[in-house]
Amino acid sequence: MLLRIDRQSPKPLYKQITDEIKTLIDQGVTGTNMPLPSTRRLAKKIGVNRSTVIRAYEELQALGYLKSKPGSYNKIQKRRKEVKYNPRRKSLIDWEKYSNYRAKEIYEIFLRYSPESPIKTNFKATASNISQLDLYPRLYPMEEFRRCVNHVLHENGSESLEYGTYKGYEPLRRIIAKRLRLHGIAVSEEEILITNGAQQAIDLIIRMLAAPNRKVAVESPTYANILPIMQFNGVKIQGIPMREEGMDLDYLEKTLEKEMLSFIYTIPNFQNPTGITTSHQHRERLLNICLTHKVPLVEDGFEEDMKYYGKVPLPIKSIDDKNVVIYLGTFSKALFPGLRIGWITADKECIERITAIKRFSDLSTGNLAQMVLYEFLKRGYYDLQIRRLHRIFRRRMQIALKTMEECLPRTVSWTRPSGGYTIWVKIHKKLTEIELHEFMSEYSVIVSPGSYYFPRKRSSGYFRISIAKSNEQEIEKGIARLGKALHSLS
Amino acid sequence: MLLRIDRQSPKPLYKQITDEIKTLIDQGVTGTNMPLPSTRRLAKKIGVNRSTVIRAYEELQALGYLKSKPGSYNKIQKRRKEVKYNPRRKSLIDWEKYSNYRAKEIYEIFLRYSPESPIKTNFKATASNISQLDLYPRLYPMEEFRRCVNHVLHENGSESLEYGTYKGYEPLRRIIAKRLRLHGIAVSEEEILITNGAQQAIDLIIRMLAAPNRKVAVESPTYANILPIMQFNGVKIQGIPMREEGMDLDYLEKTLEKEMLSFIYTIPNFQNPTGITTSHQHRERLLNICLTHKVPLVEDGFEEDMKYYGKVPLPIKSIDDKNVVIYLGTFSKALFPGLRIGWITADKECIERITAIKRFSDLSTGNLAQMVLYEFLKRGYYDLQIRRLHRIFRRRMQIALKTMEECLPRTVSWTRPSGGYTIWVKIHKKLTEIELHEFMSEYSVIVSPGSYYFPRKRSSGYFRISIAKSNEQEIEKGIARLGKALHSLS
Description:
2 copies of one chain form a homodimer.
Chain A: H1 13-26, H2 39-46, H3 50-62, H4 95-98, H5 101-113, H6 118-121, E1 128-129, H7 142-155, H8 170-182, E2 192-195, H9 197-209, E3 215-220, H10 226-232, E4 236-243, E5 246-247, H11 249-258, E6 261-266, H12 280-293, E7 297-300, E8 325-330, E9 342-345, H13 348-362, H14 367-378, H15 381-407, E10 413-414, E11 422-432, H16 433-441, E12 445-446, E13 448-449, E14 459-466, H17 472-489
Parallel strand pairs in A: 1-12, 3-4, 3-6, 6-7, 7-8
Antiparallel strand pairs in A: 2-9, 4-5, 8-9, 10-11, 11-14, 13-14
């Protein structure tokens, strides 16, 4: 066996040996079942340390080139043959027919929303995208995250990869509970359930409370992704109109006089999509309505921490001394969307009932991410990140609103949020999502069509813009393009 | 301000400064709104580098001791007051009443299974636990995992914490597809969906295919955690008796002649709980039945890789040229249970329909875990791990079966698995789970009651033991104790 070893090469010696032998085997120079020289002999022959050859053989075994039976570690293994993939193979099953009707419905919605759908492909690669609600990745505190990961892998070891408890990693629940108590919400770790992001939290709550004879009330417009999962879970949706000061509470009261609701869903801070924050009075009245009618209130605090203009009213959960509020939180909006960690806090029995559903739907949330997040919170990195984002987004929101004043026509109106990322724009013409995208694609600016946010609407005179994933220049440019588009519309 | 700094201390200087100032603030020596000395002044005064003081002030800010408004970074912040938690606060909502009946049912099952339930607390801390199916944590390849995490955080950076694509990280799907093709399953990455473990995969499939007028057929006994989630999703369960050679196919055919099924669920290798592996002939006939009746077959390959006694028949999916098989895989059984990564492979349209449900139920699976797993597979670490486990568990299973021969009475019989972790034991007396646990607690050995694994059974003449989380000594000791218990039973 002839191996070419280059001592000047930056490639490690063991790697050179591995690659040389791989090539010999792949080219058929050495055949199946042939033994390689013993590590001692080969080491001597090419003049390297024996441990270098051992490492190379281990690598070859890991890659499947050598046998793994005792006594034949040196022997070349027959390479497994890959079967060929046939993309034209048809299924005997008609999946449309086998799916239940809710699964059919959600699939159609999925295709409508799909990134590969024709709607979005009209845009040039250089289009300004001011539609996305996930945070600008350069603002992720990567270095702090790395430190926490290393700490956890070093300190917690294999525990970080074992099954976690159903409710979630206890120290994480404890530190979240403490944070909540500092924000006026009087809960303990027993009343917290960790979920795979806030979306799973919503799904679980619906799966517990949905009932065929009861509707769920949501603000109209509301968070777009909640509507399909409600429909999928067999929930009838009752939209409550959104006014300048928040959900129309007279309308809600009239609804409750007519029928029972499974729950009411609200986003009191920087509402998605409108950006509206409700007053303390509005929160008190909403809670009182829930108390009067004994109906659970789901409060989505998804951007609670993004109050960069200073004080906003305390969460409704903080004045809820009758435990009717189910509060949702997430780390996806100010930290890392892809970490997939959210949580629910509510009455202990309610949390345990939701935990039962989670336990059988995915066993538990990954321990590692929870442990890293705990470390991150404990070290104060999260608070530092929040302060940093406050400085940055206070400025970005100012720039966005100023540029809108300058560039958008008088016929258009929009909200002026006191935090968060989204601004809601009203135009004087109703458009479907396809019409809006087609129109905007001429001006190379992507916004989020209003129809996504209303229950049962295919066209609307609104759209949402978001400053979450754009820097100052991108915001200015996107809004300038938007201005050109809207001027041509009027 | 007097700070005690000890230059001989192993504690870093910046940390000493931080802690000293914290103490002064906590003790009220320096009050709210008071400014700390400028970093320059303090550095000069105590004779340290200015950067040391800056780091200390940053730390104090992160911990909430200093204000975060521009121009007042040195000023002491009023400490937020924590609200007090009142554990006796009652909820106005009757959660039992508000839950739908399926949520009520699953909560009752959860309480039955709960680790805090009275059933298990009877055992002494020194009891032998041969009931658990998760891998012995000392066998996790932690060092290799760490290397992969570091690589991903370094190479992929913030991408690892962004939202992932709905189907999962593409390189991971590609490498899984390649592995599957090497095992005879002809699929591409387009036909793979990554899930939060195999449990989520099962939940998603049920949510798509469950229909009010159709049952689902499962082996009886079968995987315990699948039964509650089927019930919860409104599925009626049809148990098909498990024989020595696998699911009773005559019984299955008769069932299919009488009624339509949503799907058939099977575990052909090292079935949980029985440990039975079906023959190639059995697999062919089962597939043919599905083709004849055009019914989807869900093949759970959860321990596919644990064939440590050598060859087992190829997966049913490998002979499925009509795309009726939905195949489930997981990395929880041979690698890390807590990583929560599983996958589904099936006909492309089927996968896309399941993806639609996943997209709205939790948006996506965490990118970081997927990227690390990809790196782990690419480097051949997974194959090394499998070979290592094969050596270890071949031996452990031999010891388990040998000890059973020696210690268990003649009146008892059990399966002799050709891989995997579980052995199924038949006794001559029917016991409920509580009766079995109470009896076994006297002999300090924990096994898994058979009634968990049968649809609608509260007592059974079986139990499952598992060698996954015990070493050789623990297996011997546990089975010896089991022998004593069973001798006293007969």
